[in-house]
């Protein structure tokens, strides 16, 4: 019985680490990622993933891409996004941004306080959510 429990515990930890991998694999000082939901889409092999991302004052996330689309909604604060092909885009609370699949971009909190965004990713299952450049 104890062995079965140990195997179950290991399986749970491994499956949770797969969900949180984008958060831990690319952790950056001053930025925290809080997974909110992950659901299969009606399109076979695709999923939607929502994450709340908190940026401390002055925190920045360097250039990266996603294998699928990213839809950003700024909940709080002011950001500068550097988007390949668009240059700099300044967003404040209530603003949105669409990042096409494979487009390199970076984000920085330029406000005086914490900034928060809601990121929704539409990605092919089994692919990483985030690819560091």
From TrEMBL:
**Which keywords belong to this entry?**
Signal
Q: Which residues form the signal peptide?
A: 1-27
- Tell me, what's a Pfam family for it? Cupin_2
Q: Which InterPro entries match?
A: Cupin_2, RmlC-like_jellyroll, RmlC_Cupin_sf
Q: Which domain of life is it from?
A: Bacteria
What range(s) does the Cupin type-2 domain occupy? Answer: 53-115
- The entry's protein name is Cupin domain-containing protein
Q: Which organism is it from?
A: Pedobacter kyonggii
């Amino acid at each position: 019985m104890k062995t079965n429990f140990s195997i179950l515990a290991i399986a749970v930890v491994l499956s949770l680490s797969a969900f949180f991998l984008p958060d831990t694999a690319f952790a950056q000082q001053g930025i925290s990622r809080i997974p909110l939901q992950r659901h299969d889409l009606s399109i076979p092999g695709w999923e939607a993933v929502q994450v709340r991302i908190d940026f401390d004052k002055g925190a920045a996330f360097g250039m990266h891409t996603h294998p699928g689309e990213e839809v950003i909604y700024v909940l709080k604060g002011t950001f500068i996004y550097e988007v390949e092909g668009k240059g700099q885009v300044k967003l404040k609370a209530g603003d949105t941004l669409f990042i096409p699949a494979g487009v390199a971009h970076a984000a920085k909190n330029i406000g005086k306080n914490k900034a928060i965004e809601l990121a929704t990713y539409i990605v092919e299952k089994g692919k990483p959510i985030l690819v560091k450049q």
